[in-house]
Write a structure and sequence with these properties.
There is one protein chain. With 81 residues, the chain is α+β, with helices and mostly antiparallel strands. It has one helix and four strands, in the order αββββ. The protein has a four-stranded mixed sheet, with no helix packed on it. The protein has one domain. It starts with a helix and ends in a 7-residue tail after the last strand.
């Protein structure tokens, strides 16, 4: 019973940390130094269609660190330089 509660608590904590990760904007994907699990960073490098920006996410933990995934998402707000 105690092990089940500990597991649920750790899952809730991971979920809370993942939802509180804020998205920042950088100009190149190489500028992302240490991506955390669940963190989202918007990359404005011109690889996505007009009105969209690339979003890089810390997807899952591997032996070599955090693996990244990227998708094009709608751009909100003014274009940053």
């Amino acid at each position: 019973m105690l092990k089940r509660r500990a597991t649920c608590l750790s899952l809730l904590m991971c979920l809370a940390f993942a939802t509180t990760a804020r998205a920042g904007t950088v100009g190149r994907e190489q500028d992302i130094v240490d991506l955390k699990l669940g963190q989202r960073v918007q990359v404005d490098d011109g690889t996505c269609p007009a009105g969209q920006v690339k979003e890089v996410r810390g997807a899952k933990m591997t032996d070599k660190g955090i693996s990244r995934t990227s998708t094009c998402v709608p751009r909100f707000g003014p274009k940053s330089k």
